[in-house]
Structure formats: structure tokens, C-alpha cells
Specification:
- The N terminus is likely disordered.
- This protein has 2 domains: 126 residues, 3-Layer(aba) Sandwich (Rossmann fold); 141 residues, Response regulator (Rossmann fold, 3-Layer(aba) Sandwich), CATH 3.40.50.
- The chain is built from 10 helices and 12 strands.
- Helix 9 links the parallel strand 9 and strand 10.
Length: 333
């Protein structure tokens, strides 16, 4: 009897311990599982599933686009999502191939800046067929009906403020060189703004050539042009790398009185302006940070099913030696 009673008491004690163990482990396990789910939700956005976005621009080595890519990437990764980036190096055929490859990877959306406004259309067709939303930035594609929305600077005004400054500083006019890029809509708009501002103000276009928006190309072109047009009073570059290429050529030619304008407001150009000894006269400034942040915000609104407008313009303004200290030289505005 004693042995039977002892066995019964041991059984009761073991059963109680098991029940207590189950009771303690249950809430703890549930709490841990809930924490993981909540954490996953925070990292992945509203859908709970990580998204993959694509990024492509005309020239991934341009500091302006480097800043845009870095800013977008930070915002995307902060949401637990992924950004795939490619650089077509101003080759629209390569850009089309790269976009097709990214479509095959199952991207959820794309941030797109075209190497050529017209030439990119086959890629836009492929994106449309795949149902992939497009946030077009900085340079408009030729047919805006393909894109979901656009974020970019007021490029016409960026060129216009440079032209207005030149008219004020050269009231008697003179010969000028224009280094543009006809396949880049952003540069076309800037050039048009510049030319409209100096129209009927006594200026003569001594030469106008395609510099591809590239420092090395513009330097070579400017070197050739300055051999036969060394009496120009100004050079307009469609972006800051072009203006810097023109500066290198003008310095090599020993020019002392030529006003060079660019568009971007890059740290390199602002450093030239701050030096007080450069032929760089001004830049139609824009903010790649604002363009990038606006683009990323728009993409996430699209992902959430929210309505977005067709265009979101970002302000442009003139930076010269007189106001460059307001914007600093160690980064983008």
C-alpha cells in the first residue's frame, strides 16, 4: 500500500510539473513568434513581402546621377526592399537590353532616366507589357503616356537663368559657343531656355555641337572650336561635366576673359565658383537629392495603390560666386 501511495504521489507531482512547463512555454513561444512577424512587417513595407526595384540612368558615372542612385537606394533599403542598378554608359541599345534583363528578374517597379528619349521606346513597350510601373526622373521620355509619373527639375528655367545672367554681364553681346546634347531632353530644354534668354540681345552663336553631356568629349570639342573661335565671350554647357570640359579646354588655350556656364550645381562647379579665379561664371542649379527623394516617395505611393500626378517639378535656380557660400561646396544642395 505504501509503495502504491508513493507511486501515485510521484505521478501527480510529475503531471503538475508538465502542466506548469506547458503553461510557461506557451505564452513565451507565442510572444517570440509575434515579434518576428512584426519585425518582418516593418522591414518589408505594407505588403509584408520585400520588393525589388530597378534603377537605370543615362550615365552612372555622372556625380549628379551617383547622388540620385545613392539616395534612392538608401530609401529603398530602409524599407527592407532591394534596388538593382545598371549603367548603360549613354548607350540606349545597352540600356534596353539591361531593362529587359531586369524585367526577367521580376522587378516590381523601375526608376528610369533614358539615355535617349526616343530610342528608349522599345524598353517602355516591354515594361508596359509586363505591367511594371515607371517613375521617370530628370529626363522625360519622348512618349510620356508610358510612364506612371515623372519627377525632375525645371530644366528650361535652369538654362534660362544662365542666359539672363550672361545678358546682364555682357550687355553688348558677343560670340558664344553652345555645347548641347540633342538626344537628352533635359539638355534640350536647358539649351532652349538659355537661347531664349539671350535672343535679340546681340549674341551670335559661333558654334553649337553635341558634347554628349560628357567631360572628356566636351573638352575635346571645345579645344577644336576654340582654335577657330578664340574670341568668344561665353560658353554654355548643357550640364556641369560639359562645362568643366570646356573649362579645361579654355584654360589650356590660355583664355582669360570667357564666361562659362553649366547646369547642375555640382560640388566641383561650386568649388570653381568659390575659388574666385575660375572662368566658370555660374550654374543653373538643381537638387538631385530632392529629385531622388521625390521619386522614391512616388514609387511607394504607387505600390500602395495611391493616385499620383503626371509630373512633379523640382525648382532650379542660379548659383554664382556671389551666392555660392549659401550652398556650400562639399556636397549637393
Amino acid at each position: 500500500m505504501k509503495r502504491k501511495l508513493l507511486a501515485a504521489l510521484l505521478c501527480i507531482a510529475m503531471t503538475g510539473a508538465m502542466l506548469m512547463g506547458c503553461s510557461t512555454e506557451g505564452p513565451g513561444s507565442s510572444e517570440d513568434e509575434g515579434s518576428k512577424t512584426e519585425s518582418s512587417g516593418e522591414d518589408s513595407g505594407d505588403s509584408g513581402e520585400p520588393k525589388t526595384f530597378a534603377y537605370t540612368c543615362m550615365d552612372g558615372t555622372n556625380p549628379f546621377f551617383v547622388t540620385i542612385e545613392d539616395t534612392i537606394k538608401k530609401k529603398v533599403e530602409a524599407n527592407g526592399d532591394k534596388l538593382i542598378s545598371t549603367d548603360p554608359a549613354n548607350d540606349v541599345s545597352l540600356q534596353i537590353t539591361q531593362i529587359e534583363d531586369m524585367i526577367a528578374q521580376g522587378i516590381d517597379g523601375i526608376f528610369l532616366n533614358p539615355a535617349e528619349a526616343e530610342g528608349i521606346l522599345p524598353a517602355l513597350d516591354a515594361l508596359k507589357e509586363a505591367g511594371i510601373p515607371i517613375v521617370n526622373f530628370d529626363t522625360e521620355v519622348a512618349d510620356m503616356s508610358y510612364v506612371t509619373t515623372y519627377a525632375g527639375s525645371d530644366n528650361y528655367n535652369a538654362g534660362k537663368v544662365c542666359g539672363e545672367d550672361l545678358v546682364k554681364k555682357c550687355p553688348d553681346g558677343g560670340k558664344i559657343i553652345v555645347l548641347d546634347s540633342p538626344t537628352m531632353n533635359s539638355v534640350v530644354d536647358r539649351t532652349n531656355g538659355f537661347l531664349d534668354a539671350i535672343k535679340d540681345k546681340g549674341f551670335e552663336i559661333a558654334a553649337q555641337q553635341d558634347a554628349k553631356g560628357n567631360l572628356e568629349v566636351s573638352m575635346g570639342i571645345a579645344e577644336d572650336l576654340l582654335q577657330s573661335h578664340g574670341d568668344v565671350v561665353a560658353i554654355f554647357g548643357g550640364n556641369d561635366p560639359t562645362a568643366l570640359g570646356a573649362l579645361a579646354a579654355a584654360n589650356a588655350a590660355g583664355m582669360k576673359d570667357c564666361k562659362i556656364y553649366g547646369v547642375d550645381g555640382s560640388p566641383d562647379i561650386k568649388s570653381e565658383l568659390a575659388s574666385g579665379e575660375s572662368l566658370i561664371e555660374g550654374t543653373g542649379a538643381q537638387s538631385p537629392v530632392s529629385i531622388a527623394e521625390t521619386s522614391a516617395d512616388l514609387m511607394y505611393k504607387i505600390m500602395a495603390g495611391e493616385k499620383v500626378d503626371e509630373r512633379y517639378p523640382v525648382d532650379t535656380f542660379l548659383i554664382t560666386a556671389d551666392n555660392v557660400e549659401e550652398y556650400g561646396t562639399d556636397g549637393w544642395q
